Amino acid sequence: SVILQPPQVGISSSQRDPGMAASNEETKIYRKDCYSVEVFSAFNEFRKSSLLTDLTLSTADGKSFNVHTIVLAAVSLLVRRNLTKNISCSWSRILDPEVEDIGLEAIVEFAYTGSIPNLNRDNLDQIRTAAQTLEASRVLEICNEAEEETTKPAGHKNRDMISSTEQLVIGLQFIRQLWEDGLGCDVILTDDFVLRQFQKVACTPKFKDLPARQLMNYLRSHALCVSSEIVVFQAVVTWIQARPTARLRLAKALMKTIHFPLMTFKEFKEVQNHNIWSKHSLMPLFQSIFEDFCSDETRTQNQCRIYLLQPSRTKFGHTYKKYD
After folding, report:
1. What's the confidence (pLDDT) of residue 114?
2. Burial (CB count within 10 angstroms: exposed 0-12, middle 13-18, buried 19+), residue 72
């Protein structure tokens, strides 16, 4: 899978502020400068091989380009809006007659490389028209800047333009945001990935559509990784409340997969105060959960879970105890 945000290297807050250095705590962030370039280079190779392409953009005269929806969505608002329609398979779009293949090709080139190397006075209007149709604001800005350059007097200093690498960084940020919003993520995830990234997967809209049996299998797995048992509870409640009429009857079976005795008092207080218990039919279930939480330690011996260290409580090279 493609990692959308690489670890970054920077200066820690303690290095910037001498007053904080006394605590002898340091946070290091690692970054690979060419990361965005490498990611989009891989996307471009996939595109040239028609690998995983799921969108065909065509001009009225029949010229077609097979692309990745998620890559074009980082550039085009028109494509981005289509993602919100929950399109989960390959689709195509024939653009307006005024869009010529030269302009469309430039948009595709920009989406994958961050630059339009063939932009000149002869094709400026064609590229601008394509950008207006696809609502590609960053390409429009480049076209406007190119037009301004042709009207400036000789010797006039050009203003700094965003480099192709910086454009790819922006594009990757757009893709990351789309991913966090659950848009363009219709690839079926492997069970191993879901178990390791359950905390993130549970926050996506697609999680609410998970079949009951599959969710139960994840919750029962000893390979499930979360930062706290409260995360499992929140995921279960989110799934139930997405379709309460059909899923409330599964509440008892799902709650049995949660290891409530492994929660802290603060976490269980959050469980107790949740509005799901306002359903009168669930009150006996909560009473059973409360008794389970208050039980002696001998009943928790068979309950185990892989807990991830939370970033707020852990720093590279240092380990902090959890206090609640």
Report:
1. 95
2. buried
Q: In this structure, is the dihedral angle defined by the CA atoms of residues 226, 227, 229 and 230, taken in order, positive or negative? A: negative
Position 28 scores a pLDDT of 61
217 plus 163 within the same structural domain: no
Cα three-residue angle 133-169-132, rounded to 5 degrees: 10
Q: Which of 88, 38, 90 is nearest to 68 (CA)?
A: 90
Give the count of alpha carbons within 13 A of 13, CB side only.
4
List beta partners, residue 163.
none
What per-residue confidence (pLDDT) applies to 159?
Answer: 61
Within 10 A of 196 (CB to CB), how many other CB atoms are there?
16
Q: Is residue 299 part of a domain?
A: yes
Q: What is the CATH number of the domain that holds 287?
A: 1.25.40.420
* Backbone φ, ψ for residue 93 (5° rounding): -145, 120
> Sign of torsion, CA 43 99 183 66?
negative
Name residues of the chain where pLDDT drops below 50.
Answer: 1-24, 188, 298, 312-324
- Cβ(90)–Cβ(43) under 8 Å? no
CA distance 258 to 236: 9
Closest C-alpha among 147, 100, 140 to residue 120: 147
Residue 119 to residue 121: CA distance in whole angstroms: 7
Is there a single domain that holds both residue 210 and residue 151? no
Q: Is 266 exposed, middle or buried (0-12, 13-18, 19+ CB in 10 A)?
A: exposed
How is residue 61 annotated by DSSP? T
Q: Are 4 and 172 in contact (CB under 8 A)?
A: yes
